[in-house]
Predict the 3D structure of the following.
Amino acid sequence: MTFLGGFFGLELPAAHACGLASFWKLPGNPALTFANGRSALAALLASVRPPRLWLPSYICRSVAEAASATATPVSYFPVDESLQPDTSWLESGARPGEMVLAVDYFGRAPGREFLDFANERQDLLFVEDACQAVDTGAAPWGRWCLRSPRKLVGVPDGGFVVPADGIAEGGWSVLEPQMDVYRAACLRFEDEEERANGLWHEANQRREARETVSTRRMSRLSRELLARLDVAPIADRRRANYRTLAGVLGDTMFLRDANPAFVPLGFPVRLPAARRDHVRGALIAQGIFPALHWTDVPSAATFGAAHVLAAELLTLPCDQRYQPFEMERMARTLVEILNR
């Protein structure tokens, strides 16, 4: 029954024909969406029940948490210092029916060697972790594609797996109250002049600390916003900002591509481990908040390249919220800090 009258709820414009929801193939059934990416992966694991999950040695700990929540055995495979997977390790170690997850790091698909391996090994179950990718500029390469939109656009929550029919009914999410996920996003949205950084940053930190694997579905607000966010201007702005940074920071840029075909998550720079945290602190003091991807990788220390990168990489923001003059200011600030 539709109620007539009463106060007005949140009202949104019509869905966009080129919105992220359609571009990413967001499931039409809300119960096939989840509160976050790790929950979507856990649902996939619970549905498929692979005998083993292979993860790259450079990976967020929350991905391993999804495997732990479903009691899925985990093994790791190496990536080199350019984040390319070691296919020879997988060739000798992975067995038919096992699941292999690889990451589109910083929005870029793995290299040709891995993509050829994934195409040849039809006996393995490949998951493309596209949680850092708007558009890799390449064809999808996994049997399933994992998404976590809140890492890329201004939505309060969400995670899902494509194709949706790859998740059996037992993995469907359930409707639960979502109000807690709105607080940090709404606080920042209302702070138009951004004078209350401490308030919304603290709210977001508390929210992040509470993130876990659950059966809670993505909020309706996130799904509706994804249907209305146009892909093209997001992609164009990210690429343009990346190019601006590359023009100044070529000596420290990690991805050696000044004009990427993929849509970048951010602009990663590589710094000596002894300086990385000091530089990050100096940037924060100037109102610039770079991200760390990631400081606490779950693989053993024997996977040396992953742990080196975890101590040396710093990701500068270059997303659609910003203009080229802001990228120029950030680049100049970083150069000044590095030259001190």
User: Anything to note?
Assistant: Residues 114 and 333 are 37 Å apart (CA to CA). The beta strands are 33-34, 53-56, 74-77, 99-103, 125-129, 144-147, 159-162, 267-270, 313-316. The domain at 20-226 is CATH 3.40.640.10 (Aspartate Aminotransferase; domain 2).
